[in-house]
């Protein structure tokens, strides 16, 4: 699954620079995660870095974007192959 940011986000700006895939960006009101770019840090780290730094714990798994570890790894390979 990719991750999502809930409306509990306080716009503290700590998650965005931690994302190795640039999947996090500022939305209209709170930060958002692009599910096409989120790999839960598979291929980069053992744990999602945004979840590790979030002070309000507002970055859960996105139930509408379920993916296996293999699918996340394949997405990582596709993203990292871009020029």
Automatic annotation (TrEMBL):
GO cellular component entries: cytoplasm
Domain 4Fe-4S ferredoxin-type as annotated: residue spans: 1-29, 31-64
GO molecular function, one term: metal ion binding
Organism: Chromobacterium sphagni
PANTHER family: PHOTOSYSTEM I IRON-SULFUR CENTER (PTHR24960:SF79), PHOTOSYSTEM I IRON-SULFUR CENTER-RELATED (PTHR24960)
Protein name, entry field: Ferredoxin
Phylogenetic classification of the source organism: Bacteria, Pseudomonadati, Pseudomonadota, Betaproteobacteria, Neisseriales
Keywords: 4Fe-4S, Electron transport, Iron, Iron-sulfur, Metal-binding, Repeat, Transport
Superkingdom to which the source organism belongs: Bacteria
Pfam family, one: Fer4_7
NCBIfam families noted in UniProt: di_4Fe-4S_YfhL
